[in-house]
Amino acid sequence: MQLEFALEMRISLGPRVHIDLAPGYTRGAVLIEDGTFTGPSLSGRVVRGSGGDFPMVRPDGSGRFESQYLLETDDGAHILKRSTGVRHAPPDVVRALLAGEQVDPQSYYMRMMPRFEAPQGPYDWMNRTLFVGVGQRNPTGSIFRFWKVV
Amino acid sequence: MEAPTPDLLPAFTMRIERAAPIVVGAIATGGARHHVPVASGTFEGEGLAGNLVGGGETLLERADGVTVIEASYYIAFTDGAVARCFGTGYRTGALTRLSLLFEAAEESSVAPLATRAFIAEQQEGSPTMTICRIV
């Protein structure tokens, strides 16, 4: 199995909401305000208001991510993106990330495994392809890069 | 500051003995549903070894010919620790690929498995599934 670069997404995030589920365990909700994506075989933008990222953060700051939102390609196709991910980092790195500081993306492990639902046509290969994503959280937004497993 | 470029490193091999499928059949929302229970099996790699003690693969044969798999494998390791390996993926033709995560008790020897993500592959006819660590 090998990885082949598929797309890069740049996302700006709206207000962050926290749900305190149990001592130390928080469900975050971060709605995507705006976003674009480009890659060798698709480009477009994130549909405004179509969803966001919902991290489940543990007492040590590590966590799991669930996300769901819609993509719209430049030629008008709509693609549903759902993703599960994992983040793990030393406590001081997590503190800096949660405080919205600029953090070296090499200092944490943030990987996503998205699934896509695309219409029949030029993007339907996404319905049967596994992807690996790497996340980078910046103070004003996120950069996600995705590779397909070939 | 650039984020890392990921890679897949072979980490574990899992041998799965599957029991007879439970066939639901064609369902109203499209496709055909089956469930394949895990009968037994082995798991090894990176200095860990264990046996499969439960789990299963829930399959949806979609209208486009691709089978979607929701998998769950319970692994009992030689030191008594237990982990759940779970995820989703696709079977296209003779090739099955899954994206996998682990859950394990926090104090157990295998708790670090839960901090990483994995991709697995099994060819039809091959006795083993190869699980690669996403680095």
What does this structure look like?
Chain A has one helix spanning about 90-100; strands at about 5-20, 25-40, 45, 50-55, 65-75, 80-90, 110-115, 130-140, 140-150. Chain A is mainly β and about 150 residues long. Chain A has one domain (about 5-150): Porin, CATH 2.40.160.20. The longest helix of chain A has 8 residues, at about 90-100. Chain A is globular and about 45 Å long. The mean pLDDT of chain A is about 95. With about 140 residues, chain B is mainly beta. Chain B has one domain (about 10-135): Porin, CATH 2.40.160. Chain B has no helices and nine strands. Chain B has an eight-stranded antiparallel beta barrel. Chain B is globular and about 45 Å long. The two termini of chain B are about 20 Å apart. The chains are: A mainly beta (about 150), B mainly beta (about 140). The interface of A and B includes residues 1, 86, 102, 128 and 132 of A.
